[in-house]
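Internal QA ticket QA-208
Title: Verify multi-chain structure generation after dependency bump
Assignee: T.L.

Test input:
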Amino acid sequence: MKHSKTEIHPYAKMYAEDAIAGKIDRREFLARTTALGVTATAAYGLIGAAAPAHAAGHAQQGGTIRMQMEVRALKDPRTYDWTQIAFFSHGWLEYLVEYNNDGSFTPMLLSSWDVNADATVYTLNVRPGVKWNDGSDFTAADVARNIEGWCDKNVEGNSMAGRFAVLIDEATGTAVDGAIEVVDDLTVRLNLPASDITLIAGMADYPAAIVPADFDPENMTGNPVGTGPYLPESLEVGVKAVLVRNEGFEWWGYAENRGAFLDRIEYIDYGTDPSAWVAAAAADEVDMFYETVGDFVDVVEGIGWERSEVASAATIVIRPNQLAEVDGMQPYADKRVRQAIAMAVDNSVCLELGYANRGVVARNQHVGPMHPAWADVPGLAHDPEGALALLTEAGMADFEMEIVSIDDDWRKNTTDAVAAQLRDAGFNIKRTIIPGSTFWNDWTKYPFSSTNWNHRPIDTQILGLAYRSGEAWNEAGFANAEFDALLAEANSLADADERREVMAKLQGIMTDEGVTIQPYWRTVYRHAKPGIVGWDMHIAYLPQMYKVAFAA
Amino acid sequence: MGLFILRRLGVMLLTALCLTFIVFWLTNLAPNLEKLAKTQGNARMSDEAVVSWLENRGYSQALPVKYGQWLGVLPGYVIEGTDGEVRARCQIPGEPVEDAATFCGILQGDWGYSTVFKDEVGTIVATRLGLTGKLMFWVMMVMVPGALIIGVLAGMREGSRTDRSLSTVSIVSTATPEYVSGVVFISVFATATFGMQWFKGTATSAMDDATFENFFLPVMTIALYGMGYIARMTRASMTEVMTAQYIRTARLKGVSFPKIVLKHALRNALIAPFTVIMLQFPWLLNGVVIVETLFNYKGFGWVLVQAAGNNDIELLLGVSIVSVFVVLITQLISDIGYVFLNPRIRIS
Amino acid sequence: MEALTWTGSLGGYLNPVLMVLLALLAIAVVAQFVLGFFAAPMTLQSNPDGTLEARGGALGMAETGVKWTFLASLAVVIGYIVVPLVMPYGAAGIIGEMSKRFLPVWIALIALFAVSIYYKRRLGLYGKLFDSTIGMIGFALVMFWVFTALFVGLFDMILTHDYLTQVSGLKNKVPGVPVPEGTEGAIPHYLLGGDNLARDIFSRVVTGSVFVIAIAPLATIFAFMVGITLGLPAGFYGGKLDTVLSFVANLILAFPVILLFYLLVTPEIVLTGIPSYMAAFLFVFPLIFFGVLLNSRYYTQPAKRNAIMIPVLGILAWLYVSVINQPGTVIDFIGRPVQPLYFMPINWLSNLTITLPAWFDLFDITILVVFVSVVFVNAPTVFRIVRGLTLDLRTRDYVAAAQTRGEGAWYIMLWEILPNARGPLIVDFCLRIGYTTILLGTLGFFGLGLSSESPDWGSTINEGRKLLLIYAHPALPPAVALLSLVLGLNLLADGLREESLKD
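Actual output:
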């Protein structure tokens, strides 16, 4: 690696000062500095801390892990919409970069990267010595081809295009000419038309799997060319998927001491019903879970399993859509109606009934204490009588609100809890459940519905995705010029303290406009039986099975 | 007799054609296709993307044309998509489009390709049917002897206390749908609530290795619902036989009661239950779906739920064909069997 | 507030007694069963002195033992229900409190039985029901739920809490748990505990009965109307009509019910409007049925016919329009202008626009699709039964007599054949309500078409089963409720069959 302290990005040093001064937390600091090309070890060094030791010393080579997980069909990685798909494919289709629980980005198929001062030129250094499992070398051309693929908006359902939007030419829907430049066999340079510091984070996300040149998404298991240490042995959607070690293939990670300890990884599908997972655990049919939800945390611990938990910014919003028309009018366009809805709901009750108190109560602002520039802005007080009065004042006391949700465990329960509280407050409520297979057809258009949102490391990210006027995922139909202007200002402020002042205004608008009910932040859990290491729950559910091993 | 079977087979084919066309029509309605595109492409796809996705994969053709292709009487589509890729209905994944056959439908033995499971429909249906077959085998092993014994015991002395109590038992069992008995069984025998944690509440591991512990509850759940009905039919037929002249003659001759039941009555009393057992097969499918959901056993019923939930058109059609044929064939067997077993009935 | 135990202070006396009695009963039953194999098939023996003698010996003792221990256990069980009515709140435990909540139902049941038994000789087939123990038990079970549904649905009695209110702190709590101070409700306990969303299970189960009791018989009646209206001519005329109708019926019957539900009861299908069209088609049959029924009877007296038919058909048509009209679907014309004669060739006629006022829509069936599907799968079976009966009955003398009199075909079918087929049809009607209840539960179990908060038993069982391995108490009460209702209907059908065969 060519990094030394002298080459460290100027912003990184500034962030380090912030971190030492306590202005940004460690996770935020690591996320930002490593995204700028600083290695995790170096980043820890900047703030005078030691990087956490790898579990490798305690790991035992070999063995079979059986993991409870929904087994989904493979498809073009760019179109992945479930991390579970990546849990299977990451055995042979690896990533350039990896995002970790401590917020750092560590290189995988890249050995390092540099970002220039205004984040317009990225230099990606390809890890030397990496080979595809068909024997050919992994080179800069492969990286460039994959990035071009990510930038192809014409592929239906390509979500990578959103992460690499800055590189895409709106007219052709493909990468801007000259933006992706192969400098030599081991170097790729990205020339951005505008600055963007989130590209590295995009490369670490689960749809960013690196695929070979003659990749055929229709025949992924039949011709599993990749760079990873495993090969797919079998895949029965909804039943079972098995990864086995690619014997004889010299994976680059062995030399780096990265792991891939297990000989065999079995993913077994026990359906969506958590009690079936517990039954499987009790019967010793699985060794670990993909995720443990709500009520079942205690139950699994009751049978002696170990817990791993991460407090995340994953959450749920139950929002009225301000633009939605019901019977020829826009019931939620009136601010008073939205405020009344927010005032009638006690967020702590939602947390209790919806998620078994496994999280932190939130204030309907979709920015929280885990975010660096969060400001301590109070939410609306819980006041059911006041809420009804406000609703009556708005002339909507007789209006029947239909609240839609998906049909799973915690999302449905939380929405039910909201519905029940609104009904208690005297609102006229109708509750509708839509099965998971159809719910997402219209998820942004339902007049009043719930949606789960995943963890995003930086405070402004989610506000930009979900609340900026006209955004595709703006499910609340929220359009506010002042909000947009403040958000743009916040995005330009690197310093957390400076940004916090703007954030306070943004959070104030979120509260005052009653944009959404965002009752709690979820803590996410995973359980495994004793004697396994490296299986920690990942904050963003990213697959890192090469770290898992039986304890020595 | 031969003509009778031929005519029945003709009606069967016509029924199967009509039913598959109905399923085809229902699954190809516009909102269902949109759902298909979104589950297969990307859940958060735009409307334009949905349209091009469907066009590129031949879903936008006219309904009779699509049905003809599925049957194999019309050539499979070859469409150059808006994304420049050429797709053919008969293309085998991993092989070039040019090698694709012209026809590929049911008539060619090609059941199509499942969009959810990414596998041949024929393979999926065969595997899952095998697993359900295993379940059904044990259900039959429990249900048929159990029902016959109850029915014969109840019917041999009509009006006795044994008859009354066994008849009540059979009524209770017919009044207990699978989702009630399954839930009761699991809470009693698979949880610590009542201190009788004897069996497992999931049958997932029974797919590879069925043991008494993990297979008993699902088998009992299905068997119980059907058992009462068959037992009542057996009882009715048994009481009828017991009042017949030849039985009375035997009793007057002084033949012992057990001998009368076993040697004289039983054979004739079992004709009616036979047809009932055969007609019970289609009903069992209902139970199979519920029990496989409840116990997480991935057989045919589970495939049905998955296919219907995801609008996996060709898989759903495959499933319908199989279940419709099970219904029709059991009807046919029960008719033929009835004729063979009962010499008094002749087909006119 | 302390938590309630199952039987409270009453249990201290009754529980041991019941245990002993049940143990004795079990021993006696086993003894009787085993000895029964070795004994001669004789029950009563008449002695020369005119007395009757029951079987003696070990078997006789076992039989007597079964009888008395059974009656004694029954008495104790009744004690659990009756004694608490005079005890103070909470003293008799959960069972006692439930018995008190059901007090109106007990009174109604006793009144109904007293009246019915007193007048049973004058009440025809219904009265004969009270000669059969099985039939009475079945009738009692069915009426228990009917009365519960009536009291809950009309007067808000019986239930203790609102069935949708969630009370913080009561999530998945065991039966008899006290509710926090200040919670609204008739009593300060959750009798059967709280469910996964901290709602009162007892109240949900009794509220669920309203749903079942309202939908299942209604859907069955509709299925019968369709089946009878089509089955009678199919059986009577035979020929092509019969062939076509039978083929269609067999077509629907060959469809696995569950597959049909999965195909029909989805939001997508509702979007296309198919259920609305099916409703428009299926629900027109009662209109046809009553129209033909009355017309065939009174067509010789047009004045009388018009006097009866116009109001009857008018009301039915109004109901019909209200039922099939559903806001937001393809059939939604109330409160907005429609052009009923749009397809007329004459220009001014097709431009005629009328507006039906909103009050015209009496009620909304929010689960129209569920209703339609249940009618749809039941109708073909009824059709087959009616057709079979008609085939049999059309050769009877009274049909020939009516034909000789010159009566019309429909008169013969509806006023001669149908009344004579009523016995099997009534029995099948009872069984079919039970079957419909099971079907509705199946739909709830798969979460098809019903709201997630719906208290119907199928949905609650489905909700409860998800946590079954940890908390069994939310799933069991609705399961037992559904079982008892269906069992009651089966027993009732059995009793009716037995009694109608005695005719």
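Spot checks passed. Chain B has a mean pLDDT of 81.
Status: verified.
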